[in-house]
């Protein structure tokens, strides 16, 4: 499974989920000319991983030798030698630039020899198809990756056969990534990062990871410094396809000492494994098909499990955040308390600045509705910096829209209009279609008590 949660829109918005076990996918949100030109991020600014090498070694093993369903993988598998990649289908115009950017990062940060080609025998085929075509095959997926095929037309016949069984692969030679070509640029880019990372590296996700795309909480959507280290280790010359878990484990300390010397002196956190009961309740709360009361009950269960487990890490913060999301529509005062609890936890975790930015957007919305521009602006300023550093255009656009409303509350209307205009180019990348951008503008403007809400 890939990407069960999409916490992009914290003022209003729905969560969108994912696909069946053992299929590596991402859960499923297009541009006109009336708004300002679309914006994109100039270059990546990843933070180095903050974890101890002993923790990273354990994380690597659990990522590399387990599928998301919990099924164990008997062998380490990867591409051996240079990796070739081609794009087929009706690719959206923005895909080329985003693909070139992530390939450059993979070469320079992860040390992977990967290059584009037009050859039909490419190791990786990225096929751009409609969202409807993807969901015809995996109804709740936005994108996914499958081994040993190169075209979506092959998938139905190969699904659930030995041909596409990751557990039977000892060396990767050919696989396909299926991306949507009719959704927002950010959604396509996020799919690109996540599916390429799994095509080249681990197939699992771990909720205990706070600074990684290999986590179904969907907070991080572009490859982080931690992710690049994991991929660099994955392609270390000290490892090879076909190794067992024990063989890889024996070599990890030396590999990590060489690639991440700062991690040698860090204090291990030794975060415990995430109970599957918590994962199941979170998925029920934020995934599809659950009625409102069922969502609330599941969110409460997840929060209770987190408390009983004794967490005081990002998973506890996310439990409060999820509860706030569920309560927001019908119980806004209670939701606010949950967001405040999440903010308190995230604020004490140095690697959770992006998590805090999501919660800051929610709390800033409450402050604007209260007419408290000072509180809103204090929350928004650091959150904008985090959203920009982590290349989250949808979150950045929303924060800019919120700042514009807060400035309007202070009477700085000219400054507010300039900020609002700045938000639109990011919104076009983050939300896609002009109607989606305008709808987000209306949602945020409706928070302002000085404006007519009729």
Q: Topology of this protein?
A:
Elements: E1 24-27, H1 53-64, E2 83-89, H2 95-108, E3 114-116, E4 124-129, H3 131-137, E5 141-147, H4 155-158, E6 175-180, H5 185-200, H6 225-234, H7 245-259, H8 276-286, H9 292-309, H10 314-327, H11 332-346, H12 353-369, H13 373-389, H14 393-409, H15 413-431, H16 434-445
Parallel strand pairs: 2-3, 2-4, 4-6
Antiparallel strand pairs: 1-5, 5-6
Written account of the structure:
The chain is α/β, with parallel strands linked by helices and 454 residues long. It folds into two domains: 241 residues, Collagenase (Catalytic Domain), CATH 3.40.390; 170 residues, Tetratricopeptide repeat domain (Serine Threonine Protein Phosphatase 5, Tetratricopeptide repeat). 48% of the residues lie in helices and 7% in strands. The chain is built from 16 helices and six strands. A six-stranded mixed sheet has the order 1-5-6-4-2-3. Strand 2, helix 2 and strand 3 form a beta-alpha-beta unit. The longest helix has 19 residues. It is globular and about 65 Å long. It starts with 23 loop residues before the first strand and ends in a 9-residue tail after the last helix.
């Amino acid at each position: 499974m890939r990407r069960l949660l999409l916490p992009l829109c914290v003022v209003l918005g729905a969560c969108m989920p994912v696909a069946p076990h053992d299929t590596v996918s991402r859960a499923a949100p297009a541009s006109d000319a009336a708004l300002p030109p679309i914006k994109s991020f100039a270059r990546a600014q990843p933070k180095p991983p903050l974890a101890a090498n002993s923790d990273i070694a354990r994380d690597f093993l659990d990522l590399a030798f387990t599928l998301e369903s919990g099924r164990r993988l008997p062998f380490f598998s990867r591409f051996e030698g240079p990796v070739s990649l081609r794009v087929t289908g009706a690719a959206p115009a923005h895909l080329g630039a985003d693909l070139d950017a992530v390939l450059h990062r993979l070469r320079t940060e992860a040390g992977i020899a990967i290059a584009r080609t037009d050859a039909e025998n490419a190791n990786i085929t990225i096929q751009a198809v409609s969202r409807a075509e993807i969901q015809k095959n995996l109804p709740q997926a936005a994108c996914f990756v499958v081994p040993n095929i190169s075209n979506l037309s092959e998938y139905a016949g190969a699904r659930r056969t030995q041909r596409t069984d990751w557990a039977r692969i000892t060396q990767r030679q050919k696989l396909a990534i299926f991306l949507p070509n009719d959704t927002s640029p950010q959604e396509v880019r996020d799919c690109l990062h996540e599916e390429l990372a799994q095509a080249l590296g681990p197939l699992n996700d771990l909720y205990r990871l706070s600074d990684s795309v290999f986590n179904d909480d969907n907070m991080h959507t572009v490859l982080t410094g931690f992710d690049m280290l994991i991929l660099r280790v994955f392609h270390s010359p000290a490892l090879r396809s076909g190794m067992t878990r024990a063989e890889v484990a024996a070599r990890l300390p030396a590999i990590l000492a060489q690639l991440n010397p700062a991690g040698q002196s860090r204090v291990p956190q030794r975060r415990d494994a995430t109970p599957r009961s918590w994962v199941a309740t979170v998925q029920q709360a934020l995934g599809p098909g659950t009625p409102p009361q069922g969502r609330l009950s599941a969110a409460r269960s997840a929060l209770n499990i987190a408390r009983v487990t004794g967490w005081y890490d990002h998973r506890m913060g996310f439990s409060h955040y999820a509860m706030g999301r569920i309560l927001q529509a019908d119980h806004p005062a209670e939701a606010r308390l949950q967001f405040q609890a999440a903010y308190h936890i995230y604020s004490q975790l140095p690697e959770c600045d992006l998590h805090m930015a999501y919660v800051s957007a929610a709390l800033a919305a409450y402050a604007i509705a209260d007419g408290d521009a000072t509180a809103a602006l204090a929350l928004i300023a650091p959150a904008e910096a985090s959203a920009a550093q982590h290349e989250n255009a949808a979150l950045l656009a929303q924060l800019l829209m919120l700042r514009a409303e807060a400035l309007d509350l202070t009477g700085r209307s000219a400054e507010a209009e300039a900020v609002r205009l700045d938000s639109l180019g990011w919104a076009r990348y983050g939300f896609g279609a002009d109607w989606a951008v305008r709808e987000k503008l209306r949602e945020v403007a409706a928070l302002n008590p000085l404006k007519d809400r009729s």
